[in-house]
Amino acid sequence: xxxxxxxxxxxxxxxxxxxxxxxxxxxxxxxxxxxxxxxxxxxxxxxxxxxxxxxxxxxxxxxxxxxxxxxxxxxxxxxxxxxxxxxxxxxxxxxxxxxxxxxxxxxxxxxxxxxxxxxxxxxxxxxxxxxxxxxxxxxxxxxxxxxxxxxxxxxxxxxxxxxxxxxxxxxxxxxxxxxxxxxxxxxxxxxxxx
Amino acid sequence: xxxxxxxxxxxxxxxxxxxxxxxxxxxxxxxxxxxxxxxxxxxxxxxxxxxxxxxxxxxxxxxxxxxxxxxxxxxxxxxxxxxxxxxxxxxxxxxxxxxxxxxxxxxxxxxxxxxxxxxxxxxxxxxxxxxxxxxxxxxxxxxxxxxxxxxxxxx
Lengths: 194, 155
Hints:
Shape of chain A: elongated
Radius of gyration of chain B: 17 Å
Shape of chain B: globular
Largest interface: A-B, 51 and 53 residues
Number of helices of chain B: 2
Oligomer: heterodimer
Distance between the termini of chain A: 60 Å
Helix content of chain B: 10-25%
Helix content of chain A: 25-40%
């Protein structure tokens, strides 16, 4: 009698969690294998999910590990519809010019191949500077550098509305340095394809 | 103690003022915030009371509501490189989006009213943990930089 009630309870529980169920939150590992985290705030309680397949349901602040088969069943269509990650290409130009350094020519070819393989591809041109000068001046310089390269890509046949220019100034150095240090590797243009 | 609290308050005020003054490279409300990159079956965007078929290449704006039919699925990228996709029978409101391409300061708040989504956070969440949020009827999820899934109790 007890057993039967127990089995019924388990079956009911499975039905509730397997079908509609409540809201569900899950963390997945990145393509590179690392996992970040999310915090789920509900009814004044916080649940941090920071391990692959760590999950939490509405109304229960305790995290649990969800089976990957459940993830596929509930989220399969969404997961397979996720667009591919953006990819960055680093281009180096001759000083004060839009002429590519010879070693950047094949990089440019790879970049265009990537663009051709993506649906509704966009090209983000991001200018970076080293730490010589004021932050505001470097913001301007980085943007000008990016706009120059964006104009060059348009001239080479990339549709204008597919190219976005942005300046990041001295905030994202490739080689970390102290302030006011000149560093050619940080004076670069990054092309991010998404 | 009081002094310290005042100092923190002043710092916070200076920070907010700085944000207000440095908004030049921010996306304005009229600028697109993203693009549809994959679309299958019935996928629509509701914008200012109108329903627009969301094919590949459709631009997305703040306040858009993305809706998939029973055979629909959609994948989107946003200007901070975050990515979102929806299962069939889903409804997602892109409530609030702000992104400064120079400082990476910003905010991305969406609301999943129905169905399920998959997402990978971008530069907004990387610069400011929990500045990317997904609301559901029962909870708010704050993103600290990761790939994640959310589903809402369906009928």
